[in-house]
Structure formats: structure tokens, C-alpha cells
Hints:
Structural class of chain A: alpha+beta
Largest sheet of chain A: 6 strands, mixed
CATH class of chain B: Mainly Beta
Strand content of chain B: over 45%
Number of helices of chain A: 2
Distance between the termini of chain B: 33 Å
Order of helices and strands of chain B: EEEEEEE
Number of strands of chain A: 11
CATH topology of the largest domain in chain A: Immunoglobulin-like
Order of helices and strands of chain A: HEEHEEEEEEEEE
Number of domains of chain A: 2
Number of domains of chain B: 1
Strand content of chain A: 35-45%
Helix content of chain B: under 10%
Largest interface: A-B, 31 and 29 residues
Oligomer: heterodimer
Shape of chain B: elongated
Radius of gyration of chain A: 18 Å
Helix content of chain A: 10-25%
Amino acid sequence: MSPGSPQSRRSFVARSAGFLAALLLGRDVLTPGGRLLAIGPDDPPAIPNDIVAKALKDRFGDRQIRTGHVQLDMPAAAEDGRVVPVIIESDLPMTADEYVKGVHLFVDHNPDVHVAGFYLTPAIGRLSISTRIKMKRSTWVRAIVETTRGEVWAGYTRVNVTLNGCG
Amino acid sequence: MPDVTGDARIRLPDRIVRGEQILVSAIISHPMDTGFFRTRDGDPIPAYFINEVTIVYGDQQVARFEWTSGISRDPLVTFSLKADREAPLTLTWKDNKGGVYRQSADIAFTTT
């Protein structure tokens, strides 16, 4: 296969697209050289400023926020920051003995970092919540849940925003 | 979408079987103004947004949402619910100016 043939161009495009998507989505990615770039979301995104640090501390204190059990689905690219869809799901138990009592949505660079809190009971069943939010600019979004046992679990997604939705 | 602030709709699945998990969608007409914008004439538009939603199934409160103006205009929310009894589902939305809006839908099981 000669360089520039349709085949190699296609595979290059596919590889590049995969790499770009991985960057945008914050997934780990294996480079052609076989090196793993660890860019989340297994590691939580860095806390960008004191406002986010305080919002998280106010809500969860010094408890460890572990990554897992929470799936935060959002578009990798949102053209209109006024209306960005969000889906939060979790496989954590929702029984009378143990359940997710709170789901919290944080957007790092929004004027109100803590966008919403959803307080639940086991009647919700397997957890699924979706809504639409405003985003000021491209940043990480954090969905962090708190169980009745005091565990704190999180899922993260980076969203690239074209039009500021917060004024 | 309804045009009058506070108009609300709840959507349930067409068929519900006892004990199954369903998705409930609810939308309410509301500007959800952040307070950060101005009119064309430069006057500030005060914050005006839904800040609390309560969900009551029969006589039981099953969820409560606390919102900010970071939720989009005409807030739409979809949530899971275990449909384990026939009872009305009532959502109550409250806004930061004292507005209270209510809408109900009956959860009834499909008979086959």
C-alpha cells in the first residue's frame, strides 16, 4: 500500500478521528506508537479554581470522590451553550437499605458551579435522570452522587461549547 | 411547547405494566432568566427561574430537585420511576418569585 492511496488515507483519517474523539471525550487513547496517553476520565479532572474546590467541599466535605458507577452522557461538542443535553445514569443500588440519595451536577466554569441537585428515594429504581443545562464555555462537567452509606461516586465528561449560554 | 409561564406537561409511557421501571418526562414553560442578561435598552433582566421541583407518587414524595438558572429555558426533565402501584403522579415546580405550578398524571396499568 503506497502512501497516499485511498486505503492508507482512510485509515489515517480513521486513526486521527479516533484520536481526536478520544481527546474530546477524555478517554484513554493508544497512540500508533503504542504509548498510552492517560487523559481521564479514570482520573478526575483537575480542580480548576477555588470556586469549584469550595463547591465540592461544601457538598462532600473531605470524603473521597471516587470515579465510577456514574455515567454522564453529554455531547462532546455543543454548539449552543444555552441548551446542552445531559443524561446521568448509575448502576448503584436503589433499595430501601442502600440508595443514591443525591445526584449533583457541577459545571466548572459556570457562574453557578453547582447547577442542580436531584434528591432521590428508592422509588426511582435504576437511576436515570436527563435534562438540559446552560454552559458558559468549554469545560469539564461533573456528575457526583452520594449514597445513604456516605459513599461518593462520580462521572466526568468534557464538553466543548461554541456559543456561551450564560451571558 | 406551551407559551404561558407555568404551563406544564407530563409524559408517561403509553403502556405500563405493574412493577416495571418507566421513564417520566416533564416540561414546564419558564424563562429561566439568569439575571446576567440585559434587554436591548440595557436594562438588567432580573433572575427568574424554577428553583425547586417536588415529585409525589400517590402519597409518597419520591424525589425533589433543586435547580438554579443553569437549567435551560423551558426546563425539561426525565427521570426513572418504579411503577409499582396505580396512583397519581404530581409534580410541583416553584420559582424564585413565589410562583407555584402543578401538574398531575395518573399511573395506571395496562390490562391485557
